[in-house]
Design brief:
Blueprint (H helix, E strand, L loop, with lengths): L18 H27 L3 H23 L1 E4 L3 E6 L5 E6 L5 E6 L1 H5 L2 E7 L3 E2 L2 E2 L3 E7 H12 L18 E6 L12 H21 L9 H7 L2 H28 L3 E5 L3 E6 L4 E7 L3 E8 L1 H5 L2 E8 L17 E2 H12 L15 H24 L4 H8 L2 H14 L1 E4 L3 E6 L4 E7 L5 E5 L2 H6 L1 E7 L6 E8 H11 L16 E2 L1
Antiparallel strand pairs: 1-2, 2-3, 4-5, 4-12, 5-8, 6-7, 9-10, 10-11, 11-12, 13-14, 13-18, 14-15, 16-17, 17-18, 19-20, 19-22, 20-21
Helix pairs in contact: 1-2, 5-7, 10-11, 10-12
Length: 504
């Protein structure tokens, strides 16, 4: 039962008592690899005393984890969320409710076993690249976690001191659900491939260090040493490819199992996903400033893309986990869902964009060819092997293709409510930025841009990356875009024929 003070505010509450079981189990799982290594070393070297040292260390950690339950309190008032921790050194953290930008609910396998959740309450503020002023309630019951999430994100909530928040989830409109046909995009995500290849490399190293003698069984070592080198390389490449493909699919399934994107009553977007570890991210639509459709090279080849929210309080760069609105999915689906999220039909991210002048292509071709040719010529004259110069020159087709792709991706448009801009070489990003979310403009023009009659106009916003650029657009067109998107903000610049770098 929730206690209420005489002043009508919620009294300090403990975390769920089942935390006394969750914390030791979680700590114990983290110690299993250490225990296994020590046991193996102890058996081989007859130093069993090390085992007892590790067990004592584990016991200390478990006791410390249990003490955390006795020393942790939290409360939610009409104005603040407060958390007290510590035994000898007490710490009190407090976050004003009007500064709360995100409420994330997660539950790992051990938490789910006891029907508990972890609630992370963030303000979106960052200090030296780290998330700051984030409160974590680890752990409370799943039902209580949902009540806390609803209450903190309810703009009409003024604080119910009796804890009588709504226990029934509000009506929601479903915007997207997982389609298993999207599994085909799992191998096209670079992060999955890198992670799985790293695991494969570690596994191979482990076999090499621990079980190298195993290949002697049945004359396998002799067969391997007499096999042609190209057969061994091909076999290893196929093995890594199979592991990467299978692993990327498993990673995709674990991360996006049960995915749903819904719009809840009261103006909150909620993303739920996860197989072993469930995740729930809530985003207030009043903090949403737009949507970005990101197309990395491999996804572009498969006609896929990712969809990322441009919002205040997410505290991350492009593709940050909190801002992901969709799994890797077909490009047409990303545009459709983007339109549904922005309540715009058709979607601004799918708008027909205005092309930039051909001189922008010339700039990219010059930057793609001149450095390669210069380095290649220098290598020809330098006392280095001739193949180094030829290898450098061989990069020229690649850089030219990237330059052509970069120019093809340039474009911009103005819709009734959004500024749309697209650019990128290899990784293409299309951003639909709410015009009312633009708080300033940065107009920049380098020496070479000035000679070419081009300018870069950057819309400054408090959301997402902090600024989104219309790159290498004709000077008059760039200023017209800024003036049309936010009338009056760039009026002083329009009175000058020559444009110099300025910041507003």
């Amino acid at each position: 039962m929730t206690a209420v003070t005489a002043s009508g505010e919620l009294d300090w509450q403990r975390l769920n008592p089942w935390m006394l079981a969750v914390t030791p189990l979680r700590q114990l799982v983290g110690f299993l690899p250490v225990i296994a290594v020590v046991v193996v070393i102890g058996i081989n070297q007859d130093v069993g005393g090390r085992i007892y040292s590790v067990l004592v260390g584990v016991l200390i950690v478990l006791v410390a984890g249990m003490l955390r339950w006795f020393t942790t309190r939290y409360r939610i008032t009409s104005e603040r969320v407060e958390l007290r921790t510590g035994l000898l050194f007490r710490s009190t953290r407090s976050v004003p409710r009007d500064r709360i930008r995100s409420v994330d609910v997660t539950a790992g396998p051990i938490h789910r076993l006891f029907r508990l959740s972890v609630v992370k309450i963030g303000t979106g503020e960052r200090t030296e690249g780290r998330e700051s002023r984030e409160l974590t309630l680890d752990a409370i019951s799943a039902a209580e976690a949902d009540r806390v999430r609803q209450r903190l994100l309810d703009p009409l909530d003024t604080g119910r001191p009796d804890g009588s928040g709504a226990t029934v989830a509000p009506a929601a409109t479903e915007l997207a659900t997982l389609s298993w046909s999207w599994l085909r995009f799992a191998p096209l995500t670079v992060s999955s491939l890198v992670a799985v290849v790293a695991v494969a490399g570690t596994f191979g190293q482990l076999i090499n260090d621990v079980g190298a003698n195993a290949v002697d069984v049945g004359g396998v070592r002799e067969k391997l040493t007499t096999t042609p080198l190209w057969v061994g390389i091909a076999t290893f490449a196929v093995l890594v490819l199979v592991i990467a493909l299978a692993g990327s699919v498993l990673i995709f399934v674990e991360a996006w199992w049960g995915f749903t994107l819904v719009r809840e009553l009261g103006g909150t977007l909620r993303i739920r996903r996860g197989l072993f570890t469930t995740r729930s991210v809530s985003l207030e639509e009043r903090r949403l400033r737009g949507v970005e459709v990101v197309e990395p090279p491999l996804l572009r080849l498969g006609r896929g893309a990712r969809t990322v929210a441009v919002a205040t309080g997410l505290g991350g760069r492009r593709g940050h986990g909190r801002g992901s609105l969709l799994p890797p999915s077909p490009r047409n689906v990303t545009h459709r869902v983007s339109g549904a999220v922005l309540a715009e039909d058709p979607s601004p991210t799918g708008s027909t964009l205005r092309r930039h002048p051909p001189v922008a292509l010339r700039r990219r071709l010059v930057r793609a060819t001149v450095p390669v040719l210069a380095v290649s010529a220098a290598l020809w004259l330098a006392p280095v092997p001739v193949w180094a110069a030829w290898a450098t020159l061989g990069l020229l087709p690649v850089t030219v293709l990237l330059a052509l792709d970069a120019y093809r991706n340039l474009g911009h448009a103005i819709t009734s409510h959004y500024l749309v801009t697209r650019h990128g070489a290899g990784v293409r990003g299309t951003v639909a930025l709410q015009r009312t979310g633009v708080i300033g403009w940065t107009v920049s023009q380098s020496f070479f841009q000035r000679r070419a009659g081009l300018v870069t106009v950057t819309a400054t916003t408090a959301a997402g990356n902090g600024g989104y650029s219309v790159i290498d657009v004709a000077t008059a067109d760039g200023l017209a875009v800024a003036e049309q998107a936010v009338p009056g903000l760039l009026e002083p610049f329009l009175q000058h024929e020559a444009v110099a770098p300025h910041t507003h």
